[in-house]
Every structure is written in C-alpha cells, then in structure tokens.
C-alpha cells in the first residue's frame, strides 16, 4: 500500500484569480450567499522563483513501469490501481476495470481517485510512491471539502426550493415554464434531474450531487430577466465559479454508457435527454472553460458529442474542448438556423436525433478539397459580426478599426519609453477580461503586485487608497475575473514561457496572452550572439503558438531610439521586419511631446490583417483612475487612413478644438462609479 505524503510547499506556475464573475441579482437578501471565508489569504504559500517543469505522458508511463505500477491507457488519462482505497472498499470492487480507479492526467500529471476522491499534483503522487514528504501529513486526502458556511447556505436554499409541479398556483408554474422555455419539458424530466424552483428568487435550482454518495455539494441558481425583446439568464453558483465543478446529470450516468452529449446549459440537457433518451451532461461554466478536473469522469465514453450553443463562440469552444477530450472520439454540432441550441430545437419541434446524427467529426488527417472547407466558409459569411471577435466596451473607436479581438492572432504593440504602454495595454486586456475572455498576463518588467494594483484601479475606475473600506468589495469582484498571472520576472527562456502558456491554455482555456515585454524577457542572454536573430526566433515561436493554440497573443516590443519630434512607424519596432510581418495587428501608442505641457497621446492602428482598416484616434489619460477610456465631454474623432500605399498621412491635430479622448459614449453595462473624478476639479 502506498502512502501519500503531501509536500509542504507545492510548486506553482500560475497565480489564478478564480472564475468568471456572475451576478447574484434576483436572490432575496436572506438568501444571498455572502463572500466565502478566504483562509488562504493568510496562509497563502509564496510562489517559488523556479517554475515547475511540465511532465509528459511518456515520462509518466516510464515512471509507472519503473515502480511496477500497472496502468491502462485512456483517452486523456492513464488509469491505475488507487493507493487511497481501503481494504473494505477493495472488496467491493469486483472487476479489474473497477479496481483501476486512479486517473492520472496525461498532460498535467494531476491525479484523482474516484473511490476516495483524493487528488493532487504529479509531485504529490511521486512523493507518495517514494515515501517522501511531511510525515505529519500522512494519509491526508487532498480533495478539499466545501466550507461549512457554503454547506449551510446550500442546504437552506435547497430545502426552501420546491418542484415546479408542487407550486400552489398553476399560473405561477406556467409563468415559470414560459420564462425558462420549459413549456415542452415534462414534469417527469424535471423530476428525473431533481430540478426545483425557488419562489422568492424566481429561479430554477440545479443540484450538484457527489457521484455515488448523492451528497449535496452545491447549487446553481438560474434567474430569468427580460431584456429588450428577449430573455437574459443570470447564473449564481454556490460555491463560487472557480470551485463549482458540477457535471450536471453525472449521477444519472451508468457505467455501461459509452456515448454522451455535452451541453453548455442545464436547460439544454433536459431537452436533449427528454427528446433522445441519450445520456447528457451540462458543463459547469458553459463555453468559458472545461476544467481538467472533470476529464476523469468522461473517460468511459467512446463517443462524445459537443452541442454547446448556436453562435460562433460556442463553435470555437467546442473545437477547443475537443482537443482536451481527444478529438478522435468527439463530434461537433455546427450552429445554424436548423441546428439551434437543444432547448430551442425542442420548442421549435425539430428532430434532435437527426441533428445529432449530422454532427461533424472533430478530427481529420488533412483538408483535401474545398468540400471540407465550404461549411466553415459559409459559417463565417453568415456570422460576420461574430467572426470579427469580442468587441471592446471601453474603446469603441478601436472596434471601428480592428472590428474586434479574435483568437489565433498576433498583435504587436509599441510606443515610446514612458508613454504609458503597460498602463494602456492593462486596460485594453482588462476590458476583454470583463467580457469573459480568459486572460494570462506575462509581466517581465514590473511585478505582478504592481500590475494587479494598476488593473484593480482601472477596474474600479478610481483610486482606492483613500477608500480602503471598499477595497474588499472591489477585490472580490476583481478576483472572480478569469485573469491569471505568470510568476516570471526578468530574463526567461522562450521554451519555458511557451510551455507555461500551453499549460495555461490546457488548464484554464486561456484565449488571450499578454507578454510585456519582449526585450525584458530576453534579458542579456543574447548579447554575445546575434540579438536580432534571437528576437526573430522568439517572435516566430509566439506566432506559431497563437496559430496552433487558437489563442490571441499581444506582444509588447520597445521601439528603436527615435528623435522626440518624429512619430513612430511600423519600421520603428526594434529588431528586423519579422515582428511586423508576422503580426496580424500593429498598434502604436504615439506620444507627442509639448514644451508647455504633458503632450498629447493617440493610438495608431498601423496594420490590420483582418480587413485592412487602419487609422488613429486620440487618447486622454486620467491619472485618478489610470485609464485612457474615461468618457470625455464631446465626441472623439476617428480618422481612417485610405491612402493608396496604406501609409498614415494624417494625424489628429492637438491645436484644433475638440481634440479629446476617444471614448465618447458611456457604457451602461457598468454600475455607477463613486470614484469617477469630477472633471471640473484638478487631479491630485
């Protein structure tokens, strides 16, 4: 029997800020789950300077063979006998397959015991096998139980919720069905999945049961709000999204099931199961993320169909998730007018079984003709706005030029020293992150603490130094953003950085990586060799990563030394022309120095491979909120460049009246901000 000995200081590559922030509107005050206790704030372990080297599937297999541990090769995990199962539990395991209850992820090395729910890192597993570690921690299960505060809240809400068919007033039950689109979903289906309705909050309640024991571990509350001519759904999870790993419908799965359909919403799972009778599971965070911790529960299936939604973002998420699940066993339902999301298909009377039969395989050897491409082309032509990517809410003029932020692209950003490159790019990335774009920051020039402080100030749209009583409120909201930081600082090898980025894409489904900046990352290691050639190699590596991982990379590069009275051009980027050639977008932060004042800044889009639009628009820095996007008094002016040679021939003149900052429209999605400075008062 192996003994697990947990090391005192586990190595960490990333410092995550958990989850995606979800609104808790609609819950009565007595039922609103308060912020969970953060015991880790006082006991947080320091991140070590030496990053953890990634482990490969070959190394895992070699280690298991060397220690005489039998294993079976699965789709995304290796299965082995669990050392965390007691003698009484071993007697209950009748088959050889059932005894292989330990799952080891091939990519990360993390393990999970299905029987005891023990889990940990590859280093924890090695320590247990080799008898290393802290003896005082012997036998401790690594799975962390939910906090008592959350458990009490879960039980209280669950006890107050009632099935829809038991509501005292039939009109109320019918209204709830109409609100959530459940007019064709039967009571038997709702009873089969144990769905209830919370009357005070007017929300559906979906339970999270532990497989096997059926212990209630958490809840998801789904509220419906009218928005224009449609319905907007608001989700609330207990525990918080980062710890909510519920595959809705998992307790209903049999060991004999070999096919499953994955959806992004619980309502779609209800519709699919009722219409087709197939096993269905709903992902806990929809299209935002597929946590690797859930992969062991999907190992038994030979075929997985992903039907995640009816828009292009759902289609991209399905292709990304298929990579984790092994594309050879995955099929994807392409969004279309006759293939909407499952609940809508049920309400429209469409044949869901026929739609599933038309699912496309996620894996193929190569594209041999236009036949394999024609559906992809049609999809892009039919969804022009979605193909353009995620639009910025703080920079509308940037939307008019770049049209949006797209996966798989490389953006090169440059500007003079001291012009505010890091400050601008942090707000640029924060804007996307607040819209659900999972973001990884690699700050090689300034510390993560200072960067997080800048981003928190930009998030709150005001300084918090004088209002520390509101720090926890803003920090809680900021913490729930899908934002992560690499712990590197200063010189790093490109191989280590790329490995870390690949790890983050796999574990956290990162869609946007910011590298600030290229020269600091290179350090002085190339002074004795060809520094230009080394930079070209690094740029090529980031280009390849962006394409292969379908992840947008924003690369900050310092310019060459230019005269202060000259504007920067694409040729001003340090190094050879490879950076601008490889880039899909080139952004230049122009800083026009003035003798009598701080000068004028504006952003120039010098290259746009998506549709060719280039231009400039002015920026105005607000020192109180550290932002470039505070709405000014009058409308900003945008100039598109239409010169035959594609060169910038005009620039906004600072001497004309009305040259103000670029964001002239307030965005109503943000709450009223008490920290926004009075424009009539001078900044301190």
What does this structure look like?
The protein has 684 residues and is an alpha/beta fold. It contains 22 helices and 24 strands. The strands form 4 sheets. The chain has a 10-stranded mixed beta sheet, sandwiched between helices. A 5-stranded antiparallel beta sheet has the order 2-3-4-5-6. A 5-stranded mixed beta sheet has the order 12-11-13-14-15. Helix 16 (421-433) crosses helix 17 and helix 19 (494-508) packs parallel to helix 21. The model is unreliable at 1-51, 93-97, 133-146, 632-636 and 642-684 (pLDDT under 50).
Brief overview:
The protein has 684 residues and is of the alpha/beta class. Helix content is 29%, strand content 17%. Strand 22 (600-608) and strand 23 (614-619) form a beta hairpin.
What key phrases describe this protein's structure?
disordered N terminus, ten-stranded mixed β-sheet, alpha/beta, single chain, 684 residues, five-stranded antiparallel β-sheet, disordered C terminus
As a percent range, the share of helical residues equals 25-40%
Strand content: 15-25%
Instruction: For the largest sheet, list the strands in their spatial order.
Output: 1-18-17-19-20-16-21-22-23-24
Shape descriptor reads globular
**Global Rg:** 27 Å
pLDDT averaged residue by residue: 78
Uncertain ranges: 1-51, 93-97, 133-146, 632-636, 642-684
State the total count of DSSP E strands: 24
Distance between the termini: 66 Å
Q: What class do helices, strands and sheet pairing give?
A: alpha/beta
Biggest β-sheet strands, sense, barrel? 10 strands, mixed
Count of DSSP H/I helices: 22
């Amino acid at each position: 029997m192996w003994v697990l000995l947990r090391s005192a200081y586990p190595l960490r590559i990333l410092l995550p800020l958990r989850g995606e922030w979800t609104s808790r509107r609609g819950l009565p005050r007595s039922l609103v789950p308060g912020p969970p206790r953060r015991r880790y704030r006082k006991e947080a372990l320091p991140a070590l300077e030496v990053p953890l080297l990634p482990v490969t599937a070959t190394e895992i297999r070699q280690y298991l063979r060397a220690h005489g541990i039998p294993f079976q090769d699965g789709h995304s995990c290796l299965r082995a006998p669990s050392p965390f199962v007691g003698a009484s539990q071993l007697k209950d395991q009748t088959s050889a397959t059932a005894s292989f209850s330990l799952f080891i992820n091939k990519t990360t090395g993390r393990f999970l015991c299905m029987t005891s729910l023990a889990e940990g890192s590859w280093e924890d597993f090695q320590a247990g096998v080799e008898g290393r570690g802290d003896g005082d921690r012997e036998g401790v299960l690594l799975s962390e139980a939910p906090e008592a505060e959350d458990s009490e809240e879960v039980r209280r809400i669950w006890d107050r919720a009632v099935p829809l068919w038991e509501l005292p007033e039939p009109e109320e039950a019918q209204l709830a069905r109409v609100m959530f689109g459940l007019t064709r979903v039967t009571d038997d289906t709702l009873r089969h999945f144990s769905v209830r309705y919370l009357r005070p909050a007017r929300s559906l309640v979906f339970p999270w049961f532990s497989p096997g024991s059926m212990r209630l571990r958490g809840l998801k509350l789904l509220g419906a709000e009218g928005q224009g001519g449609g319905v907007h759904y608001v989700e609330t999870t207990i525990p918080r999204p980062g710890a909510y790993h519920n595959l809705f419908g998992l307790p209903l799965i049999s060991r004999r099931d070999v096919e499953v359909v994955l959806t992004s919403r619980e309502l779609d799972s209800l519709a699919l199961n009722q219409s087709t009778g197939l096993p269905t599971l709903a992902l806990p965070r929809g299209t935002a993320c597929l946590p690797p911790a859930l992969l062991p529960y999907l190992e038994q299936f030979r075929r997985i169909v992903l039907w995640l939604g009816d828009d292009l973002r759902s289609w991209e998420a399905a292709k990304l998730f298929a990579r984790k699940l092994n594309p050879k066993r995955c099929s994807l339902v392409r969004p279309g007018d006759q293939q909407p999301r499952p609940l809508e298909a049920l309400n429209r009377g469409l044949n869901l079984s026929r739609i599933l039969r038309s699912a496309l395989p996620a894996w193929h050897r190569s594209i041999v003709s236009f036949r394999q491409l024609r559906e992809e082309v049609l999809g892009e032509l039919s969804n022009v706005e979605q193909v353009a990517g995620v639009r910025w809410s703080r920079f509308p003029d940037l939307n008019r030029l770049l049209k949006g932020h797209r996966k798989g692209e490389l953006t090169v950003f440059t500007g003079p020293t001291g012009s505010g490159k890091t400050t601008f790019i942090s707000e640029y990335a924060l804007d996307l992150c607040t819209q659900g774009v999972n973001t990884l920051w690699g700050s090689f020039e300034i510390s993560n603490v200072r960067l997080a402080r800048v981003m928190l100030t930009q998030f709150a749209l005001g300084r918090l130094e004088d209002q520390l009583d509101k720090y926890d409120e803003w920090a809680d909201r900021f913490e729930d953003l899908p934002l992560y930081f690499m712990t590197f600082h200063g010189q790093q090898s490109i191989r280590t950085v790329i490995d870390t980025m690949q790890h983050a894409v796999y574990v956290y489904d990162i869609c946007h990586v910011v590298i600030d900046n290229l020269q600091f990352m290179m350090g002085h290691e190339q002074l004795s060799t060809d520094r230009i050639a080394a930079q070209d190699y690094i740029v090529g590596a980031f280009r390849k990563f962006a394409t292969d991982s379908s992840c947008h990379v924003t690369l900050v590069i310092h310019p060459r030394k230019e005269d202060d009275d000259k504007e920067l051009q694409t040729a001003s980027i340090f190094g050879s022309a490879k950076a601008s050639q490889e880039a899909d977008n080139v952004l230049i932060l122009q800083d026009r120095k003035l003798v009598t004042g701080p000068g004028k800044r504006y952003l120039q889009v010098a290259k746009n491979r998506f549709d060719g639009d280039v231009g400039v628009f002015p920026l105005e820095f607000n020192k109180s909120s550290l932002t470039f996007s505070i709405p000014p008094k009058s409308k900003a002016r945008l100039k598109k460049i239409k010169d035959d040679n594609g060169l910038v021939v005009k620039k906004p003149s600072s001497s004309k009246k009305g040259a103000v900052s670029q964001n002239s429209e307030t965005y109503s999605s943000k709450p009223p901000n008490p920290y926004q400075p009075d424009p009539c008062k001078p900044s301190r």
